[in-house]
Design goal:
Elements lengths: L1 E4 L6 H10 L9 H13 L3 E7 L2 E10 L4 E9 L5 H14 L5 E4 L6 H6 L3 E3 L2 E3 L7
Parallel strand pairs: 4-5
Antiparallel strand pairs: 1-2, 2-3, 3-4, 5-7, 6-7
Helix pairs in contact: 1-2
Length: 136
């Protein structure tokens, strides 16, 4: 069973392994330093959700938001050995639910296009936008 967590203090080695599973570490020279950098990115994000199977992190997403008008989803990563679409949708849904009244956008990888479309985002000038309201 997959557990979803909101802890921002994610283990650097697990983040690196997850990134490595989706080829986001290609060309990295210093694994340890890069893992700590990835960890800092998540620690300093406004919203973080991770997916776990037992003690293994199998998915993660982060978001930056002003909590009033706009939010942007970054760093969606799901280990391809698992049900990537289902886990990705759950991670995104949980993220957006933190501030459902704002407008969300996302920087997406090619594999994510259909996932974001299924969740009500539309493609607008290389950014995916949901139908949230923006008061500004």
């Amino acid at each position: 069973m997959i557990a979803y967590k909101t802890d921002k203090n994610l283990p650097a080695d697990q983040l690196y392994d997850l990134y490595e599973s989706i080829d986001w570490t290609e060309g990295v020279q210093d694994k340890e330093s890069h893992a700590l950098l990835i960890q800092k990115v998540y620690e300093n994000s406004d919203i973080v959700f991770s997916a776990w199977e037992d003690k293994k992190m199998i998915g993660v997403v982060r978001a930056i938001t002003d909590k009033f008008a706009h939010g942007i989803v970054y760093g969606l990563a799901v280990n391809p050995d698992f049900n990537t679409d289902e886990i990705a949708k759950e991670l995104i849904t949980k993220t957006i639910a933190e501030y459902p009244e704002i407008q969300w956008s996302a920087n997406v990888e090619e594999w994510e296009d259909g996932i974001f479309r299924d969740l009500g985002f539309d493609d607008s000038k290389n950014k995916f936008l949901n139908k949230g309201n923006c008061p500004i």
